[in-house]
Specification:
There is one protein chain. By secondary structure, the chain is an alpha+beta fold. The protein is built from 11 helices and 20 strands. Strands 6-7-5-15-16-17-14-18 form an 8-stranded mixed β-sheet, with helices on both faces. It has a 6-stranded mixed β-sheet with strand order 9-2-1-13-20-19. The radius of gyration is 22 Å and the shape is globular. The two termini are 18 Å apart.
């Protein structure tokens, strides 16, 4: 079977590896650092309902709500159904709510008008001056733990994952990639592949230089978020307006995440931001949750988003596949919520080259992945340590068990690969 090289260990690369390994390809994924060390591991943790996109990008909205439903069924272990609310603070935002309701109806997103007093009762920190509230099926997903299950599933289906492995050069002949060279543990290794897939997102411009492509245009966009060491909301609270800076706050474990502010950057490795931009973001969010101004954030963190250049000032969150060579493509854009679709689309792209039918991953039970891996690898994992982790189920730290278990099993899977 054809040998496939995937570059990038974010959620898109992992789902690509899973889809292609299920199809029977000989898949190797290369990640410069660790799994989910880039954009996929540094977002706000939201599993979108699609409401954020339904007004201006209905196709993305439909994809989001469909994936929301699929993952809520087969990956419920990693998802918390907090629900989401859009709140207005003025007449203009109330009117946007009417547009949102109509757009959500067209895209299949269930939307409920909620009594303001009822929302304040549920969310006591919300601004009591809100004038309207709409409920949507936004949820929280534990990104790293879910990604671990996707990676482990791909390895159980034959994929190889090489972390801390940086692509440094390639051999190109007759408009085809013949081989790639990568560096791991200060050793340089060359390997031939039949097809190469670049899923490095905002770092694509840098990666493609190793393939003699120097003019690949991408719009790396720096997104900052602030994390607070207390829970100030029980649900995801969105501002009832067009997507903008400082318009979302949500609970993530024992913390609250507030964001975001978006800044176009020429360098995907740059995290430079002005203090005024952070202050503006927090000030905007504090209009929804006034208590935010009473506390100082515990941590600022950022991610670099791979937006596609278009006529919109903020860029598009859609994804596109670009043909780099006869046997190389790059996938750019997208979001965590629709990563399974991106992996499937990449698989369908290779189906046109090799005729291998794309397997359906919509019913793959990620809830059982960890236990399946343990059962298969009883002699290669520390069962005493896993037994200790299982004891978490009976105490107050039960919510941390899967995070530790997922990280440990992923390490075992990669080392045993």
């Amino acid at each position: 079977m054809e040998k496939i090289c995937i570059i990038g260990g974010g959620i898109t690369g992992l789902f690509s590896a899973l889809n292609l390994s299920l199809n029977g390809y000989n898949v190797t994924l290369f990640e410069k650092n660790d799994i989910l060390s880039g954009t996929s591991g540094k977002f706000h943790g939201m599993l979108h309902s699609g409401s954020r996109y339904s007004v201006n990008d209905p196709e993305s909205a439909r994809e989001c709500i469909n994936e929301n439903k699929i993952l809520s069924n087969f990956a419920s272990r990693f998802i918390k159904d907090t629900g989401g609310y859009y709140v207005s603070l003025n007449r203009e935002e109330e009117e946007y709510g009417d547009i949102l309701i109509k757009s959500n109806k067209k895209t299949g997103i269930e939307t409920e008008e909620v009594n303001v007093e009822d929302l304040i009762s549920r969310e006591p920190y919300v601004n009591h001056a809100i004038t309207r509230a709409l409920k949507v099926p936004d949820k929280i997903i534990n990104a790293h733990t879910f990604a671990s299950s996707v990676a482990i599933e791909s390895i159980m289906n034959g994929a190889k994952i090489k972390t801390n492995s940086e692509i440094i050069s390639s051999e190109i002949r007759d408009n085809e990639v013949v081989s790639i060279s990568y560096k791991k543990n200060n050793k340089i290794v060359s390997e031939n592949f039949d097809f190469v897939i670049n899923t490095t997102g905002p770092w694509s411009g840098n990666v493609l230089k190793n393939f003699n492509i120097k003019d690949f245009e991408i719009m790396p966009t720096l997104g900052y978020m602030a994390s607070y060491d207390r829970v100030m909301v029980n649900s995801i609270i969105n501002r009832m307006r067009e997507p903008s800076d400082g318009d979302i706050i949500l609970p993530y474990g024992p913390n609250t995440v507030a964001g975001t502010v978006a800044i176009i950057s020429e360098n995907p490795d740059s995290a430079e931001i002005e203090d005024d931009d952070i202050d503006m973001m927090i000030s905007e969010i504090a209009e929804m949750i006034p208590s935010l101004k009473k506390y100082h954030y515990q941590k600022l963190y950022h991610s670099m988003r791979p937006l596609i250049k278009d006529e919109k000032a903020r860029g598009s969150r859609d994804f596109n596949i670009f043909n780099n060579y006869n046997n190389m493509i790059s996938v750019i854009g997208g979001k965590f919520t629709t990563s399974r679709i991106m992996g499937r689309t990449i698989s369908e792209t290779l189906e046109k080259y090799y005729g291998v039918k794309t397997e359906d991953t919509s019913k793959l039970n990620f809830n059982a992945t960890f236990e399946k891996f343990i059962d298969i690898n009883k002699n290669n994992v520390d069962m005493e340590f896993i037994g200790y982790l299982n004891s978490y189920d009976n105490g107050m730290d039960y919510m941390y068990k899967d995070q530790i278990l997922g990280a440990y099993l992923l390490k075992c899977a990669i080392e045993g690969d």
